[in-house]
Amino acid sequence: AEQALGRYAAAAARYRACLAAPPDRPAARVNLGFCLQELADVDGALVQYRQALTADPTLYASVLKNLTTASHGRLPRDPRALRLMLCG
Question: What pTM does this model have?
Answer without folding.
Answer: 0.78
